[in-house]
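Lab notebook, bench 4. Continuing the backlog of folding jobs that were queued last week. Each job is logged with the same field layout so the records can be merged later without manual cleanup. Today's entry covers Cell division protein FtsX, a 297-residue chain. Filled in by technician R.K.

JOB TYPE: sequence-to-structure
TARGET: Cell division protein FtsX
LENGTH: 297
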Amino acid sequence: MVVKPNVLKHHLKDSWKSLRRNGWMSVAAVSAVTVTLLLVGIFMALLLNVNRISSQVENDVRVRVYVERGTTKKQEAKLQTELKALKNVKKVSYRSAKTELDTIVGSYGSQWKMFSGDKNPLNNVFMVDTKDPKATISVAKQAEKLKRVAEASYGGSTAKKLFKTVDTIQRWGVGFTILLLFVAVFLISNTIRITILSRADEIGVMRLVGATNGYIRWPFLLEGAWTGLLGALIPMLVVDIGYSLVYRNAGLTTAANGYSLYASVPFLIWLDLALAAIGVVIGALGAVVSMRRFLKI
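JOB STATUS: finished
OUTPUT FIELD FOLLOWS
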């Protein structure tokens, strides 16, 4: 339904007056939304960054295919071709036993140099990157069945726990966020209900003079939106300050491990917009719930 600018301006003023007229009830509703959206904002920031770091960790998971000692170059080339042909394999790279030993020497000290040359106990290795990180387990099992493969590892139980943990966080995170939003809608709907009941006589007069249903409903809808928007302001401020502090303190640590949180800008801008939008939407939904139940027009 299209609303004329002058009528919309009147509804905006009316909804703002209604908020002030309700006094402590409006404060209570805004406070409840503030607490709810603060938890939602913190949880959204946490969930999004956990998903980001989990994706980065997942992308680092590879299948290490150890080649049997004594395998010829021709046999290794054939094995590499077979590995590339496996389902969900994106890339296969080769690391010689010497390269593996040099990596250990660089990480753990020169005492490992005694194993150089013919004394090197390590195997040549194919590093297999998968198209989907979760496919590493199945690719490892397929690779172990190929000839000239001594072992295929993918992190074992660590990889399984990682994938399971990520799925659990995503499911519970979405569920918890939806629950919080339902609570906010319920609280706002109760506040709007009180407003409707307190203005019953006024609504009756408006009906008698021919006011349309839409005209009567708009102020309550806007009042709910105002409640949600005002309730989002403090969570936006708190989450911005808190996340900036966490990002500065945790940035170096995560970078040292090869991972990173979302940069404060533009992440916080989008998060603030999301919180404001969520506040307005749940406020309007709360108003709609009350109007359907208590405004029989």
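OBSERVATION: The CA atoms of residues 12 and 222 lie 7 Å apart.
SIGNED: R.K.
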